[in-house]
Each structure stands twice: as C-alpha cells, then as structure tokens.
Amino acid sequence: MTETLFYRLPWQSSSVYPGAHPGQMIGAGQLFKRHEPLIASPDPRRIDLRASILDPFSSYRVRVYQQQSSVNVYLLADMSASMGYADKQQTLLRFLLTAANSASDYGDKFGFIGCTERIEHRWLLPAGQHLGRVSALAKQLERLSFSGSANGLQNAAAFLPAERSLVFLLSDCHFPLPQLRAVLGSLQAHDVIPLVLWNQHEYAALPNWGLISFQDMENNATRTLFMRPALRQKIIAAYQQRQHDLKNTFRAFGSEPLFITEGYSTQTINRHLQQRVA
C-alpha cells in the first residue's frame, strides 16, 4: 500500500480550481477574507447585516470567503549516473509513486521532469491527474540504466508552468555548487523542496586499512588509494563539509534541504514537510 505525503503550502495558490490548499481566489470556503458590496458579489445569503448598517454609504455588505485551491506538484529528478548507485534509483521510483498518489488524494495535478545530460521528452510528464501514466513511467525508469551527468537540471524551469508550483528536487547533488546555484536561481518562481540522496557506503563504510578503487560514475575515471585511518577521516570530513556547503546554498535561495542517508522513509519526509510550515 502506497503511503501518503502530507504536504502543506506556506503560501496561497493562484489556481482557479478548488482543492485542499489556501488560495487567492474568492469562493466556497470557511475562511473569511473580507466584505464586498452586494453588487460585486451578488449572493444575498451572505449579507452581513451588522456590516451593512455600519456602511457609511448605506449599501449592503456581503461576506466573501477564501477558496481552497489546487496546486501543481512536480518531481524534478536527477537521473545522472551517480543516481544509479546503490538504492538511489529505487528511492527515486518509490518517491515518484508516493508523490503522484498523494497529489491525486489532495486533488492536485502531478508532473515529472527527468534530467540527464539534457531533457528528453520521454522523461517529461506534464502536470495532470494520470496515475496510469505515472505507473507506466515508473516501469520505464526501473529498466533504465542511469548514465551521464545531470546538466539538464539547468533547463528544467522552461518545462514548468508559469504559476507557482510545488517542486520536489530529488538529487544527490554530486555536481559543482555554481551549477546548483544556477538551477535554484532558475526555480525561484516556485516552492522548491530539496531532497538530497546520499548513501552511507559512499563515505561512512570505508575500511581503515587497504587498497580501495574509487570510480567517478559519470566520466568513468578511476583512482586507487591506500586507505588508512587519517585518510578515511579526511574523506568523511570532506562529506561533512560538502553537506554544510549544500545547506548554505539551498538556504540562500529560501529552501531547507532534507538529506536522506539511511534509506527511503515517507515518515521522515513528512516530518520535514511539517517542520517547514510550523
């Protein structure tokens, strides 16, 4: 059974379609927004007698309410070679299905943008309510061998709608910080939730002694090192510094990242989603 993401918006959706989130539109709802003249909102059922009596122009005043609206939810996925390491690809697939089903439960539209060296149309799914197409896409991705870089991330904003959307950015961020800044800069019109996938075997499970061969999965370059305690600690410290730098980069663009290092957990992501609107 697919679990549910309980995402909430700290902003108001501009969508005209009813949904589950705070909206900018006036319509059916329970949250009072303001008074308007009866002629502007001709619904006699909502005449406020007290406000009408106090009106200096002796006109009828009507209570109008904030409409709950829908939102477009997108998964912007890094599909580079490094995302094929260990369980990262399976985590991407699980989150894809979880996010799509959750958006459907909320009455929202869900879309997907998969990024490799460039953005290919076969990895594009415009926002809509189409769980069947999402399931078919997941099966295609499951058979795919991730390769190359994630340079396509820098062009992803062109495939997002003009109105503000909720964008989950799923990546291991194993690319230069200037490239990440360019990606985040292009996404500033949207609400971005970064989910950073790391696997502890990349750095924490290294032995204290022995020969270890490291391979860059994106350019296939290899390097053999003689591991020793001091070098092992240096590598771990480099990852810790990288995490610190990534956090500062995301925060500079108004986003708080979640580092997923111990396998996929919907509960962990939900706690992060609750904290961002607390």
From TrEMBL:
Cited InterPro entries: DUF58 (IPR002881), vWFA_dom_sf (IPR036465)
DUF58 domain residues: 61-243
SUPFAM superfamilies assigned to the protein according to its UniProt record, in alphabetical order: vWA-like
Pfam families on file: DUF58 (PF01882)
Coiled-coil regions listed in the entry: none
Protein name per its UniProtKB record: DUF58 domain-containing protein
Species per Swiss-Prot/TrEMBL record: Methylobacter tundripaludum (strain ATCC BAA-1195 / DSM 17260 / SV96)
